[in-house]
Amino acid sequence: MPWVDAAGPAMLDLARAISELETLDPEQARMIELRFLLGCSVEETAELLSVSCSSVDRKVRLARAWLFSRLHDSP
User: Fold this and answer.
1) Average pLDDT per run of 10 along the chain, which is 75 residues long?
2) Dihedral (C-alpha) 25, 29, 35, 38: value to the nearest 10 degrees?
3) Phi/psi at 25 (nearest 5 deg)?
4) Largest CA distance in the chain
């Protein structure tokens, strides 16, 4: 996610936001972890979670938008 500085304190905020997302939608949180933290492809993520590639694309887009909003609207 280009808007998160991996070497800065924003990484802690991202970890907290992913934990919050996990309480709301565990599957989306897992998809974010697989795609962006572990570097899995869409196809690999879909296979690991037994869902379609289009589901991964859609849910990751929603999760990224939620995370972006969460990280940029936080006080």
Assistant:
1) 59 88 97 93 97 98 94 70
2) -150
3) -150, 90
4) 37
The token pair that represents 19 in the structure block: 């934990």
Write the CB contacts of 56 (distance below 8 Å, at least 6 apart in sequence).
31, 35, 42, 45, 46, 49
**Cβ contact 16:67 at 8 Å:** no
Contact 70, 12 (CB under 8 A): no
Burial of 45 (0-12, 13-18, 19+ CB in 10 A): buried
pTM greater than 0.85 (yes/no): no
